[in-house]
UniProtKB/TrEMBL annotation:
Keywords for the protein's UniProt record, in alphabetical order: Membrane, Transmembrane, Transmembrane helix
Protein name according to UniProt: PQLC3 protein
Major localization class: membrane
Pfam family, one: PQ-loop
GO terms under cellular component: membrane
Source organism of the structure: Nothocercus nigrocapillus
Source organism, top-level taxon: Eukaryota
Membrane topology listed for this record: Multi-pass membrane protein
Record lineage: Eukaryota, Metazoa, Chordata, Craniata, Vertebrata
Location of this chain's protein in the cell: Membrane
Record InterPro entries: MannP-dilichol_defect-1, PQ-loop_rpt
Transmembrane segments: 42-61, 67-86, 93-113
Gene3D superfamilies according to UniProt: 1.20.1280.290
Amino acid sequence: MAPALLDVANWSTWAVCAVMKVPQVAAVLAARSARGLSVGSLVLELAGFLVFLKYQIYYGYPLQTYLEYPILIAQDVVLFLFILHFSGNMKQALLYTVIFLGGWYMLTLQKWIIDLAMASNLCTLISAASKFAQLRCLWQTKESGQVSALTWSMSAYTCASKLLAT
């Protein structure tokens, strides 16, 4: 791939990631409801993002190879809190925080743990599972509720651009 095209792919991915969850958050806030959104899907997505981010940091990869992940994690946390709030489960936020922080710490207790998480394509499997969990939720409820098509479209774009750039 030409260097200029590679730069466009990288910069556009970062730009899209910077606002990717904004339409989803806006939809939830406007409706004051998290109907149609899967908590399980978001938990899986966050887990996959955290494993990938921890691996990149642990091995000292350049920031530009994973810059979008801290941005996406922050947006997912905000969305997650709104989903918990509007579904009346805000008390679970502390439990999820402890689980995620414990997982973040445990990933690098032993080098083989983080290596296994990446070598087995765990992040990819978790990410795919998160999408299937959301689709399952949509199938079961027979209603899209507050699911943002724009957020899903931006996610598809960033996946495609990362494939090209990588």
